[in-house]
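Long-time lurker, first post.

We've been arguing in lab meeting about whether zinc ion would sit comfortably in this protein at all. Half the group thinks yes, half thinks no, and nobody has a model to point at. So I'm putting the question to the forum: if I give you the sequence and the SMILES, can you give me back a predicted structure of the complex? Inputs are below. Any interpretation is welcome too.
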Amino acid sequence: MPNAVNDPKTQRQSALDDLNQYMCGQKGGRKLLSAELEQYKERGVTHGWHIPSSDTQPIALDIVVDENFPYSAARVALPKKGPGGPLKWPHVESDGVLCLLSEQATVSSQHPVDVTKAVLNEALELVKNCRNGDIIDDFRDEFLSYWNIGTDKNAPLFISLITPNGPSRHVIAWYGNAMYICADNRDTLDGWLTRLRGKKPNNDSMFQKDVLVWLPQPMIPSEYPSTAIDVNSLIEEHDPDALELFRDCVAASPKSLNVIFGATTKHGACFAAVTLFKPSNKEIEKGFRPGRIPRDVSISRYLSTNKIMRSKVHRADHNWVHGRDQDIRQNSLKKSRVLVLGCGALGGSVARLLAQSGINNLTLVDHQLFDWPNASRHILGVSAFQKNKAIELAETLQHDFPHLTGIEGHPVEFGLSATGLINSLPSFDLIISATGRWEVDTLLNGLQRSKVDIPSVVYAWLEPRAAAAHALMIPQSSDSACLRCGFKESGRLLLPVVNWPDDESLLQEPACGAVFSPFGPVELTWAHALVSEIALGTLMQSVISPTCHTWVGQRNTVEDSGGSWNPEWCDLIGDPGQGGIVVRREWKRLPDCPICNISATT
Ligand SMILES: [Zn+2]
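Top reply:
Settle the argument with this. Predicted structure of the protein with zinc ion, as tokens:
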């Protein structure tokens, strides 16, 4: 039964009363004045208390709560006038609040005072460690948190495509809309911008040469540069070899010059950027005729005590986007080449999942145009109407994942006459056949059985009404089983999961020969995951022999549509019960398979 005591407003008031009583009961404890609360206004703080230092409390602390308390925990902060503070001690945010709980931490809303006591104890432990200087290395391990505190509010956005490793080197940046995109070279940058914006950048004046300085370890706050001459000193001290790269850029006397600092932390590589601004020509050329100023003089005048701008750098390179440097599969997936035949409701979404998984080289093939009713099941929406599915999908994926360099679409129908495509098959690591057309699948099967260099194939298909989805992997040069081993000559599955009354599963469209199988986008989603999983498993070599993964739909949906579990499936594989399950099984060779037997005798 609902009870008014559980009402969040009642809970909050009671928690605030309890906490107030506890805080004011501490030695010297009192409520924060509204002027003192100002320090924390950015985080929506509504109430706060102050506990002064005493014999039991080695440092004065503020305790604050926000509008979600007690569903959010109380936070502990260093008052402005006390010791420590942001960038002096680690784990102190810009407003003095201590970083004690991770963003994902869960707290009990039932015991707000106990939670606050625990947080206070952690705060005292942290303060002790900070005072001892024990955790100064945390500034390096969590470099980005601290660098970002010290960045300028008006600083441009930096997006990095730079390969996150040393050595120091020249890089190139493109400037547009208050953001810099930095890359190792012009080709990378041109390609990325073209994929993102659909057109090649043609204004050379928007590009400039900058420098990447790879530091042996991340900076601590006392090393953060504030002026151009600080930048020079920092480079001189940590990577003298990079000094000439830097001075080379300075000598060109650009209006502004970016220096990107990179380093490796325990949690992956990180970047930070500073922008130097050219002093006025008058200052640089003072005492010399224009154009006659010696290089060294010009450089040293550029490197003035003028303020620089510090900026955050957002990594947009492959290993960061796909797994934040933690996904060891990426080195392999990045190089994999996958061909997707059929970019319809099934293949289209599988292609997107593979791109999201980090497959850099995806070739998409489909000859069909997008039609209005496709929108209910297809990854592309109605804006693709009357456009070729493969080309449109490739462009969408290029735009959404501009760091993936090898996505292309081809408006080709796969068949014997598509000789270019057939000749290119050996260049792929995996083929996914998601056309749902028996003629395509049998042609592929024939090719795979007759040539040694056709890569592994994942055949994907749905049973009528998406009552079940299958993803079958036949490896390259397999002599154990083929696609045909599980099918009748007509393309009917030997062992379907569901039996239907004859021909009731397909409905006719008002056009000659046009039939479709009614099912919705929700059932399809299981199939997308099924096919993508076996595809990735094949690329990562966790699936190596002929294997079929089957998703079995919900029993009530099947029965409502007039279908029933196939008794033969139940005997051989097992009763799916209520359905909604995935079955993974070996795909066995059919003793009298006409395709395998021809292969065996020739
Ligand atoms: Zn066979």
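For your lab meeting: The mean pLDDT is 91. Residues 481-482, 484-485, 590, 593, 595-596 surround zinc ion (CB under 6 Å). Whichever side wins, do check it experimentally.
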